[in-house]
């Protein structure tokens, strides 16, 4: 296994992972660290779909464009110390990177998007009680909605770091018979001790029962591989 990206924002994947220029990668939760996406796109020239309605994330993506146009550019925000060293020598093909300014959920809707108590932090959540009671209203969609919009018949890799909404999104994805070859999931509901009904364990067991194998569990940042044989 090899960790693609920074210590904070990276994910473990097989060293020999079979991705290429035709691969489709959905990356839910952008934040202020897309080192994982940058390294995958640079190495495999894959199609990356970044999904995050957070203002700070949109700003960071715009700053990434400036950085790869001029690598003397300095990011604003809470940037990881090892961010520059991981992305400096990479080539990010923005023609194959698509930004979706919506939240991930189980259907098209408009929902409350809760902010953190400290608004210097980038993450927000669709789950009430994860952060503060301050919110904005955003558009949300399902994985299937995005696939329909772009005409995708499959997903090669799905990454989710969406602050507790991962359970709802994955349950709906399974109901829609969508099974990405690889999953990189941060189980925030359990990590932040908000999983009173044990939903995370139930979902992980469901994933295993339908054919997913755990390749790496890095403190509830879990990489799965699907084998439907």
Tell me about the largest β-sheet. 7 strands, mixed
Summed over residues and divided by their number, the pLDDT gives a mean of 95
Could you spell the SSE succession in H and E letters? EEEHEHHEEEEHEHEHHEE
Into which percentage range does the β-strand content fall?
A: 15-25%
Concise description?
The chain has 229 residues and is of the alpha/beta class. The protein is built from seven helices and twelve strands. It is globular.
Write the layout of secondary structure elements.
Layout: E1 2-4, E2 11-13, E3 24-28, H1 35-44, E4 47-51, H2 55-69, H3 83-87, E5 97-100, E6 103-104, E7 109-114, E8 135-141, H4 143-150, E9 157-160, H5 166-175, E10 182-186, H6 188-191, H7 199-209, E11 212-217, E12 221-226
Parallel strand pairs: 3-4, 3-9, 4-5, 6-8, 9-10
Antiparallel strand pairs: 1-2, 7-8, 10-12, 11-12
Based on the model shown, name its key terms.
229 residues, alpha/beta, three-stranded mixed β-sheet, 7 helices, 28% helix
Characterization of the model:
The protein has seven helices and twelve strands. The strands form three sheets. It has a seven-stranded mixed β-sheet. A three-stranded mixed β-sheet has the order 6-8-7. With 229 residues, it is α/β, with parallel strands linked by helices. α1 links the parallel β3 (24-28) and β4 (47-51). It has one domain. The protein has helices spanning 35-44, 55-69, 83-87, 143-150, 166-175, 188-191, 199-209, and strands at 2-4, 11-13, 24-28, 47-51, 97-100, 103-104, 109-114, 135-141, 157-160, 182-186, 212-217, 221-226. The two termini are 22 Å apart.
């Amino acid at each position: 296994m090899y960790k693609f990206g920074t210590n904070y924002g990276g994910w473990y994947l097989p060293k020999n992972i079979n991705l290429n220029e035709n691969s489709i990668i959905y990356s839910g939760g952008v934040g202020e660290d897309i080192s994982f996406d940058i390294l995958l796109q640079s190495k495999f020239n894959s199609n990356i779909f970044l999904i995050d309605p957070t203002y700070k994330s949109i700003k960071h993506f715009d700053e990434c464009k400036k950085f790869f146009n001029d690598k003397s550019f300095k990011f604003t925000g809470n940037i990881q110390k090892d961010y520059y060293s991981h992305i400096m020598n990479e080539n990010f093909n923005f023609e194959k990177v698509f930004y979706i300014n919506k939240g991930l959920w189980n259907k098209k809707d408009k929902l409350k998007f809760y902010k953190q108590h400290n608004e210097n932090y980038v993450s927000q959540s669709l789950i009430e009680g994860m952060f503060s009671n301050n919110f904005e209203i955003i558009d949300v969609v399902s994985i299937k909605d995005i696939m329909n919009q772009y005409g995708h018949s499959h997903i090669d890799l799905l990454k989710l770091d969406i602050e507790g909404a991962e359970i709802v999104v994955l349950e709906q994805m399974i109901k829609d018979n969508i099974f990405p070859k690889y999953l990189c999931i941060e189980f925030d509901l359990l990590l932040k001790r908000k999983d009173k009904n044990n939903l995370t364990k139930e979902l992980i067991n469901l994933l295993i029962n339908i054919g997913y194998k755990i390749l790496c569990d890095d403190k509830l940042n879990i990489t799965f591989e699907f084998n439907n044989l």
